[in-house]
Design brief:
- This protein is an all-alpha fold and 94 residues long.
- It is built from five helices and no strands.
- The longest helix has 39 residues.
């Protein structure tokens, strides 16, 4: 890796790119401090925010999510039964 950097450093067109990459490696990582700052700036959950914006829409959305979850649960139960039947048929054929 170091040899590759040195080799490319001596090409005229790469000076600026190499310098930017080297500077980027020595930059301080602000990821954790950014997350801490964002958490301090928020004083409510998404649910609380959505309730404040439009309570009726929030309730309707929650109802739709529950309905979708129930439909998916039924769908996967049926799918699992189909898979079991297919496995049984495969065992019988072979």
């Amino acid at each position: 890796m170091i040899l590759n950097i040195l080799r490319n450093f001596f090409k005229k067109s790469n000076y600026l790119v190499i310098i930017k990459k080297l500077l980027k490696r020595f930059e301080k990582d602000n990821h954790e401090s950014s997350i801490k700052w964002a958490k301090k700036q928020t004083n409510q959950t998404i649910d609380e925010l959505m309730q404040k914006i439009d309570f009726k829409l929030y309730l309707k959305s929650k109802k739709n999510v529950k309905s979708s979850e129930m439909m998916l649960k039924k769908f996967f139960q049926i799918l699992m039964k189909i898979c079991q039947v297919v496995q049984l048929l495969n065992c019988c054929i072979f």
